[in-house]
Amino acid sequence: MKSGIVKSPQEDSRTYWGGTLFGLLFFGVGAAFLVLSIIPNLWDAARMRDWVAVPAEIVAADLKTGNSSDSTTYQATARFRYEYNGQGYSSSRVGIADSGADNVGDWQQNTYARLKRQSNTSIWVNPAKPSEAVFDRELRWGLLGFKMIFVVVFGGFGAVVLWLLNRTPKPVPAGLPAWQDRPEW
Question: How many angstroms separate the CA atoms of 178 and 173, rounded?
Answer without folding.
Answer: 12
